[in-house]
Design goal:
The complex is a heterodimer.
Chain A (H helix, E strand, L loop, with lengths): L26 H9 L5 H30 L7 H50 L2 H6 L2 H43 L1 H48 L1 H6 L3 H54 L5 H43 L20 E8 L8 E8 L4 E5 L6 H8 L7 E6 L2 E2 L5 H5 L2 E4 L8 E2 H6 L7 H10 L3 H6 L8 E2 L8 H15 L3 E5 L7 H15 L3 E5 L3 H6 L2 E6 L2 E6 L1 H7 L2 H14 L1
Parallel strand pairs in A: 3-10, 3-11, 6-9, 9-10
Antiparallel strand pairs in A: 1-2, 1-4, 4-5, 7-8, 11-12
Helix pairs in contact in A: 2-3, 2-5, 2-9, 3-5, 5-6, 5-9, 6-8, 6-9, 8-9, 13-15, 15-16
Chain B lengths: L25 H14 L1 H36 L20 H51 L2 H6 L2 H43 L1 H7 L3 H38 L1 H6 L3 H53 L5 H44 L20 E8 L8 E8 L4 E5 L6 H6 L9 E6 L2 E2 L5 H6 L1 E4 L10 H5 L8 H10 L3 H6 L17 H13 L5 E4 L11 H12 L3 E5 L3 H6 L2 E6 L2 E6 L1 H7 L2 H10 L13
Parallel strand pairs in B: 3-8, 3-9, 6-7, 7-8
Antiparallel strand pairs in B: 1-2, 1-4, 4-5, 9-10
Classes of the chains: A alpha/beta, B alpha/beta.
C-alpha cells in the first residue's frame, strides 16, 4: 500500500480484535464434546455401526467391479457376469440404505448437540452479572453462538465419522492390494508418505494464506463500514478521492491475498493427482512386466490393483481436510467452553432469602465501591431515604451517580459497608426477589423488537391489554403513544426503536416501569434535548411515574432536581453536599455555583 | 443531527429495495449480467479454452491406460480383440511388449505432467479473472457510493449498503465464473465425453447413459424442494441471533425487571424452531443423496452386464472399452451434478446483481455543473433567496426562506424539533439542493461553483460527531490528510482540545476507540470542531453541536465554539440565550417558515414567538434556565 500522506489512513486496527481459528487436538476438549452426545447415545451408537458398515461396503463395491471385469468377463462366463451384476446391485442397494441412515443420524446428532449447547450458552449468559456485559463485546457473544458453535457441529457430526469411513476404506483397500500383489503394494506404500508430505505442506501454507485473506477482508469491511457510516463527514470534508484510493489499494491488497490462496490450491490439487498418476505409470510398467514375463501374475489382479490403488489414495486428501476441520472445531469448542466456564464474580449468598414485599426504605451505611478492587469509585457513602421519596443524584460524569443506582439494583455488590432495603442487607436477599420490586428506566431507552405493547408489557408479562393502556393513561400520554403512532400500541418498533421519536421511546420506557409498579424506581434521565413542548409532556409523565414510590434519579434537568426530596451532590465518589434545591442554593456551596454557571450559560 | 426523515410511503429513486420487494425483472438482470460477462469475453474464452484442453488431456491419459491394458491382454490372449491405436500410430511391430508398455507408461506420465501444469495455469487464470472482476466492481460501487447524495444515506440502512460492496459484489462476479463459464464448460465436457463414448460403442453408450437424465431431473427437483427450506432455516437462525443480541444489549433491562427465565423460555422456543425445521431438511437430504448415488450405480450395473457381455462376445475391448467407460461414467455423473450448483449460482447472482445494480444506478443528485466556477477562498457572504425545500417532492420542509448575512457575521437558527433548522443548514454546503429559489455564496448561486471548492470553504460540526477509528491527529486532519502536526495542533488549540489531547495516553497519536467510545461527548465534539477548523474555512456550520452531550460537560465546548466562530461566517442552531445574544441575526423557524427575523434585542421587543419561547425557557417555575440542566 502506498501511504504517501501522513494522515491518510482511514482506520487503524488493533490486534486484540483477532481470535485464533485453530488449536491442537486436546483430549480434555474432545471428551467434553463427546459427553454432549451422551443424551443421544443410541443415535450415536447406531451411527457408529452405520459408519463401520460403510467402510466395508465402499471397497466391497470396487472389489466386485474388479472381480466381474477380471473374472467372468475375462473367462467368457456369461452366467458369472450375471451373478456378479446381481451381487453388485444388492450391495449397491444396501450401501445406499446405510447411507440414508448414516446421513440422517449424523445430521440429527449434530443438530441435537448444537441445540443443547445454544440453550446452555443462553441460560449461562442470563446468570452473568452486568460487569460481564460491560466488558464483553456483543459481536463476541454472537460469534460464540453462531460460528463457534457451527464449527463444533462439524466436529461432532463429521470429523469422527468421516474419518472412520475413510480409514476403514484405506485399510481394506490396502488389504486387497496386499492380497492381489504384495510387491506392487510396496510401490504404493512408497508413494503414500510423499502424498502425505505434500498434503501436510500445502495444508499448512493454505491455512496461513486463508488467515491472511480473512484478516485483509476484515480490514476491507471495517474500512467500508466506517466509510458508509461516516459518509456525511467524508463528503462534508471533500475526502472522497483520498478514501477511494485507500479503498482500492485495500481491495487490490485483499485480492492479492486471495490469489495467494488460489495459487496454493492450483498447485496442490494437481500435485496430488499427479502423484497418483505417477504411481499408476509405475504400476503399469512394473505390473506389466510381471504380467508379461513372470508366471503367476495375472492381468486381472493388475486391473483390480489399479482400482484399489485409487480407493487407497483418495482418503488422504479427505483425511487432511477432516484434520483441519477438527482443529477448527477445537478452537470453537475451547471458546464456547470458556464462556460456559466463566463464573460470575459473585452470586447470591447461599443463605440469601426472598425479599418480602417492601415499603421502599433505602439506606447506605458507610459504603465503598469500586468496579476494580484497587480503584474505588464510591467512598464512605452514608444516606437514608424514606419510602416514597425522590432522590436526585447530581454531579459530573464519573462522579459516581450511576454506581449508586447500580448498587441499589444489585448489579454489583458493595466493596465495603452496608446497603439496606427496608432493613434487609442487600447481600442477604436474592437478586430475583429484589428485581421484582424494582423498576428501571435507562438513559438509552432500550426497546426490544416487537410492538410498543410488547415493550410495555415487558415490565409485567402477565398484564392484560387494559392494564397496559391504564399504565399509559396514568402517564397522561395516551395521545402520544396511541393516537400519534400509525397502529397505536400495535406499532412495530423498528431497529433500535427507529420508527418512534426520541420522546416516544422514552415514554414507552416510562410506561414499562409504570406497569411493573415497583416500590423502588431507578431512572437515568436522557440527556438528549427534545423540543420544548415534548419536554413539558415528558416532565408531566415523569412526575406521574415518580409519585408514590422511592425513586433514584440521575438528574439532568433542573425541574427534576427542584422537585426532589433530597439532592445528593457527588464529586469523585463522595457526597459533598446534600439537602434540597432550596436549602442547597441557600447554602451557597458547590451546587449553587454549578447552578449559577448553568443559569448563566443558558440564559444570561 | 442532519435530518433522517422517516422512510417515504412512495418509492423514492434513491431508496434501495428491501428483502421482499419486487425488484427488476430477471430478464433485465440477465441482460446486464451478460453485458458484464461480455466485457471480460476475451479472458472468459481463454479460461474456457484451457478447461477444454484439460478435458482432452484427461481423456487422453485415460484412454492410454485403457490401451495399456489392451496391449497386455492381447499379448496374453492373442485371440482377444487387437488393441486400438489412435490415429493408427501403432509402434513398429518388432517392438517387444515390454517396450510398448514402457512407451505407454511414459506417455501416460507425460500427459499427466502436462495436465498438472496446465491445471495450475488454468486455475490461476480463472482466479485472476475472478479477482479482477471483484476489484473492478468493488471500486466502482465504492466510488459510486461516495458520489451519492445525503438523501441516499438517509433512506438506506448502512448495513445493507455495506453488504452490497462486501458480499453482493461476489455474487455478481459469480455469474461470470459460476454461471457463464461453468455452463459452457459442463456442456463442452459432456459433448467431448459423449463423442468419445459414441466412437467406441453407440448402443453401450446409450444404454449406460439411460439413467443420466434422471440425475438431472433429481438434482433440479431437490434444489427446488430444499432451497426454500434452507432460506427459511436461515431466517429462523437470524431470529435466534436477533433474540440473543437484544437480550445482550438490553441485559440491564432484563435483569432490572427480573425477566431472565422468561427470556430463556423465548430463546429456547426460537432455538427449537430451528431444530424442528431442520429435521425436514435432513430428511430430504438423506433421501436425495442415496437416491442419486444409486442412480449413478445403475449406470455402472448396465455397464457391467451389457459391457461385460460385449467384451465376452468380442465386440468391445477390455481396456479402451470397459475400463475407460467405467471411469467416464463417473465423470459424467460429476458434471451432471454441477447442475445443482449452477442453479444455485444463478439464483445467488441474480439476487446479488439486483442489489449491486441498484447502487450503481442510484441517481447522483448533487454534482458540479460542467461549467461550474472554481472558488478558492470565499469571503463568506450567504444569501437565501426565496428558498423552498423538501426531502420528498410532495412535502415541503422549508418554504420561502429569505435572508442574508455578511462575511464574518453569525446567524442563529431557532425553532422546535422538526422546524427545519438542520435542513436549512444542509443547503449551504449543498448536501441537498433547494426545490425552488437559490442559495448564494459571495453573490454566486451555490450550484454554479465547484462542489468540492464550496465544501472546502465550509467547516462542519454535526450533532453526532462521527470520529473514525484512527489516531486523534488523523481525525483532525481528516479533511486535509497532508496537514502538518503544527497545523493540527493549532486547530486543536482553537477548539480548546489541545490540553486534553496531550493528557491522552499517546497524545495526538492515541487511537480513538471504535466510534469514539473512549472519549467523552464533550471531548469528541471538540475534536470535531478542530477537524472543521483545520482548513480555516470562511464559513462554519454548527448543527446542534451540544445536543448529544451530557449537560454537565456542556460548558467545555461552549468556549470552544465561541473561539471557533471568531472571524468566520457562522450558522448555528441554538438553544442557549448566550449564543442568541451575540448573534448578528436570529432566524426563528416554525414548520419550515421564517416567522421572525432580527437581533435578540429586536425580537424580545416584538412579543412574538421568540419572546414566548424565550419566556417558556426562562420562566418555568422560578428557575431562569430550563432547557439547560443542573450540575
Amino acid at each position: 500500500m502506498k501511504a504517501r500522506v501522513p494522515y491518510a489512513a482511514l482506520t487503524v486496527r488493533r490486534a486484540e480484535d483477532r481470535e485464533t481459528e485453530q488449536r491442537p487436538l486436546e483430549m480434555r476438549l474432545i471428551t467434553r464434546l463427546l459427553a454432549y452426545t451422551g443424551p443421544y447415545a443410541a443415535k450415536r451408537n447406531w451411527l457408529l455401526l452405520m459408519v463401520a458398515f460403510r467402510s466395508i461396503q465402499l471397497p466391497g463395491l470396487t472389489w466386485l467391479t474388479a472381480a466381474v471385469i477380471t473374472g467372468p468377463v475375462q473367462s467368457h462366463d456369461l452366467r458369472g457376469v450375471g451373478l456378479g451384476v446381481l451381487a453388485f446391485t444388492a450391495l449397491a442397494l444396501s450401501t445406499q440404505l446405510v447411507m440414508h441412515f448414516r446421513q440422517r443420524l449424523a445430521l440429527e446428532l449434530g443438530e441435537a448437540v448444537v441445540y443443547d449447547l445454544r440453550n446452555e450458552v443462553f441460560a449461562h449468559l442470563q446468570q452473568m452479572p452486568m460487569s460481564f456485559y460491560n466488558r464483553t463485546k456483543l459481536g463476541r457473544i454472537i460469534s460464540r453462538m453462531t460460528s463457534d458453535i457451527e464449527n463444533v457441529r462439524i466436529g461432532v457430526q463429521e470429523v469422527l465419522f468421516v474419518s472412520i469411513v475413510q480409514i476403514g476404506q484405506m485399510f481394506l483397500a490396502a488389504m486387497f492390494m496386499l492380497w492381489y500383489d504384495p510387491t506392487l503394494f510396496l510401490v504404493v506404500l512408497g508413494v503414500a508418505p510423499l502424498l502425505w508430505a505434500v498434503n501436510k505442506h500445502f495444508r499448512r501454507r493454505l491455512s496461513g494464506a486463508l488467515r491472511d485473506v480473512q484478516e485483509s477482508f476484515s480490514r476491507v469491511t471495517a474500512t467500508l463500514a466506517e466509510s458508509v457510516n461516516g459518509m456525511r463527514v467524508t463528503q462534508g470534508f471533500v475526502r472522497q478521492e483520498t478514501n477511494a484510493e485507500l479503498f482500492s489499494d485495500l481491495v487490490a491488497d485483499h485480492s492479492q491475498y486471495n490469489l495467494n490462496v488460489t495459487r496454493l490450491q492450483s498447485a496442490f490439487l494437481p500435485l496430488l493427482d499427479l502423484n497418483s498418476q505417477l504411481c499408476f505409470a509405475a504400476l503399469m510398467l512394473i505390473g506389466g512386466y510381471r504380467v508379461l514375463y513372470l508366471d503367476g501374475a495375472e492381468l486381472g489382479s493388475l486391473v483390480g490393483f489399479l482400482l484399489m490403488a485409487n480407493l487407497f489414495f483418495s482418503p488422504i486428501a479427505v483425511l487432511g481436510n477432516q484434520y483441519n476441520q477438527a482443529l477448527t472445531a477445537m478452537a470453537g469448542a475451547e471458546r464456547v467452553f470458556n464462556l460456559l466456564d466463566s463464573q460470575p464474580e459473585w452470586t447470591d449468598a447461599a443463605d440469601a432469602r426472598e425479599l418480602p414485599p417492601i415499603e421502599g426504605r433505602v439506606e447506605f451505611r458507610n459504603l465503598s465501591f469500586g468496579y476494580q478492587r484497587d480503584r474505588l469509585v464510591l467512598r464512605g457513602i452514608n444516606f437514608a431515604c424514606e419510602p416514597g421519596q425522590t432522590i436526585a443524584l447530581v454531579g459530573h460524569t464519573g462522579s459516581g451517580k450511576t454506581s449508586i443506582t447500580n448498587l441499589i439494583a444489585k448489579f454489583y455488590l458493595p466493596s465495603d459497608g452496608e446497603l439496606l432495603i427496608d432493613g434487609h442487607e442487600i447481600r442477604q436477599i436474592t437478586s430475583d426477589s429484589l428485581h421484582r420490586q424494582i423498576g428501571i428506566v435507562l438513559q438509552q431507552n432500550f426497546l426490544f423488537g416487537g410492538t410498543v405493547m410488547d415493550n410495555i408489557r415487558f415490565g409485567r408479562p402477565e398484564a392484560s391489554d387494559e392494564e397496559v393502556i391504564e399504565a399509559v393513561r396514568k402517564l397522561k400520554c395516551l395521545d402520544l403513544l396511541v393516537d400519534a403512532l400509525p397502529s397505536g400500541l400495535q406499532t412495530q418498533v423498528g431497529e433500535r426503536g427507529g420508527s418512534l421519536s426520541l420522546g416516544q421511546r422514552q415514554l414507552v420506557c416510562f410506561a414499562r416501569a409504570m406497569l411493573a409498579d415497583p416500590r423502588i424506581l431507578i431512572l437515568d434521565e436522557a440527556t438528549s434535548s427534545v423540543d420544548t413542548l415534548t419536554e413539558a409532556r415528558l416532565q408531566t409523565a415523569l412526575f406521574a411515574l415518580l409519585k408514590g414510590r422511592t425513586s433514584f434519579v440521575v438528574a439532568h434537568r433542573l425541574s427534576t432536581v427542584r422537585h426532589a426530596d433530597q439532592v445528593l451532590v457527588l464529586d469523585q465518589g463522595r457526597i459533598i453536599e446534600r439537602g434540597n434545591h432550596f436549602t442547597l442554593l441557600a447554602a451557597d456551596g458547590v451546587y449553587a455555583e454549578l447552578y449559577r454557571s448553568f443559569a448563566r450559560a443558558s440564559a444570561a | 443531527m442532519l435530518p433522517c426523515p422517516a422512510p417515504p410511503s412512495g418509492l423514492s429513486p434513491s431508496r434501495l429495495s428491501q428483502p421482499g420487494d419486487a425488484g427488476a425483472s430477471n430478464a433485465v438482470l440477465f441482460r446486464r449480467l451478460f453485458a458484464l460477462a461480455w466485457a471480460y469475453r476475451g479472458r472468459c474464452v481463454w479460461v474456457l479454452a484451457q478447461q477444454m484442453l484439460l478435458v482432452a488431456l484427461a481423456l487422453t491419459g485415460l484412454s492410454l491406460t485403457g490401451l495399456g491394458i489392451d496391449v497386455m491382454r492381447h499379448r496374453l490372449a492373442p485371440e482377444s480383440v487387437t488393441p486400438h491405436w489412435p490415429f493408427g500410430l501403432a509402434p513398429p511391430a518388432d517392438w517387444g511388449p515390454l517396450a510398448v508398455t514402457a512407451l505407454i507408461a511414459g506417455l501416460i506420465l507425460a500427459v499427466a505432467l502436462v495436465h498438472a501444469a496446465l491445471r495450475f495455469v488454468a486455475s490461476m487464470s480463472a482466479g485472476r479473472l475472478v479477482q479482477d472482476i471483484v476489484v473492478d466492481l468493488r471500486s466502482q460501487v465504492y466510488d459510486k457510493l461516495q458520489r451519492l447524495s445525503f438523501r441516499f444515506f438517509d433512506e438506506n440502512r448502512s448495513g445493507s449498503i455495506i453488504n452490497r460492496v462486501a458480499g453482493d459484489v461476489q455474487a455478481v462476479r459469480l455469474f461470470v465464473d459460476g454461471v457463464v463459464i461453468q455452463v459452457l464448460s459442463v456442456l463442452l465436457s459432456l459433448a467431448v465425453y459423449l463423442y468419445y463414448m459414441l466412437q467406441v460403442h453407440v448402443p453401450l453408450t446409450l444404454a449406460c447413459l439411460g439413467a443420466t437424465p434422471l440425475l438431472w431431473v433429481g438434482a433440479v427437483l431437490f434444489s427446488r424442494k430444499v432451497r426454500p427450506a434452507y432460506k427459511h432455516s436461515s431466517e429462523l437462525t437470524d431470529e435466534m441471533v436477533l433474540h440473543l443480541s437484544e437480550n445482550v444489549q438490553g441485559a440491564q433491562v432484563v435483569k432490572g425487571f427480573a425477566r431472565e427465565s422468561d427470556q430463556i423460555a423465548r430463546f429456547t422456543a426460537a432455538n427449537r424452531a430451528i431444530k424442528d425445521q431442520k429435521e425436514e431438511i435432513f430428511w430430504h437430504i438423506s433421501l436425495f443423496q442415496p437416491a442419486m448415488g444409486f442412480l449413478t450405480q445403475i449406470n455402472m450395473i448396465v455397464l457391467l452386464s451389457y459391457g461385460g457381455y460385449l467384451v465376452i462376445v468380442g465386440e468391445l475391448r477390455l481396456g479402451e472399452g470397459l475400463f475407460v467407460f467405467a471411469n467416464l461414467l463417473q465423470q459424467f455423473a460429476n458434471q451432471v451434478g454441477q447442475v445443482t450448483n449452477i442453479a444455485n449460482s444463478i439464483q445467488t447472482s441474480l439476487t446479488g446483481a439486483q442489489r449491486v445494480f441498484e447502487v450503481l444506478d442510484a441517481p447522483i443528485e448533487i454534482a458540479s455543473r460542467p461549467d461550474a466556477a472554481p472558488l478558492k477562498k470565499a469571503r463568506g457572504e450567504i444569501r437565501f433567496e426565496n428558498v423552498d425545500f423538501g426531502y420528498q417532492p410532495d412535502e415541503q420542509v422549508l418554504e420561502q426562506i429569505d435572508f442574508s448575512i455578511g462575511a464574518g457575521q453569525c446567524v442563529a437558527i431557532v425553532g422546535a424539533t422538526g422546524a427545519g433548522k438542520s435542513s436549512l443548514l444542509s443547503l449551504v454546503p449543498r448536501f441537498y439542493d433547494p426545490s425552488a429559489g437559490r442559495v448564494l455564496i459571495d453573490g454566486r448561486d451555490a450550484r454554479d461553483v465547484q462542489l468540492d471548492d464550496l465544501r472546502r470553504n465550509v467547516g462542519l460540526v454535526f450533532q453526532e460527531s462521527f470520529l473514525f477509528s484512527n489516531t486523534v491527529a488523523a481525525n483532525i486532519a481528516f479533511g486535509h490528510p497532508g496537514a502538518t502536526r503544527e497545523q493540527i495542533e493549532r486547530a486543536a488549540r482553537i477548539a480548546s482540545a489541545h490540553e486534553f489531547i496531550e493528557d491522552l495516553p499517546h497524545g495526538y497519536d492515541t487511537v480513538v476507540g471504535e466510534y469514539g467510545s473512549n472519549l467523552s461527548g464533550g471531548q469528541r465534539q471538540r475534536l470535531a470542531i478542530a477537524r472543521a477548523l483545520l482548513l480555516d474555512p470562511a464559513i462554519l456550520i454548527l448543527d446542534d453541536a451540544t445536543a448529544a452531550i451530557d449537560p454537565s460537560t456542556e460548558h467545555e465546548i461552549l468556549a470552544a465554539m465561541e473561539q471557533a466562530m471568531r472571524g468566520r461566517t457562522t450558522l448555528v442552531t441554538a438553544h442557549r440565550m448566550s449564543t442568541l445574544r451575540r448573534a448578528d441575526l436570529v432566524v426563528v423557524l416554525e414548520r419550515g417558515r421564517i416567522v421572525q427575523l432580527g437581533t435578540h434585542e429586536e425580537l424580545m421587543q416584538e412579543q412574538g414567538h421568540y419572546y414566548e419561547a424565550a419566556r417558556l425557557q426562562i420562566v418555568d417555575d422560578e428557575s431562569p434556565a430550563e432547557s439547560g440542566a443542573a450540575a
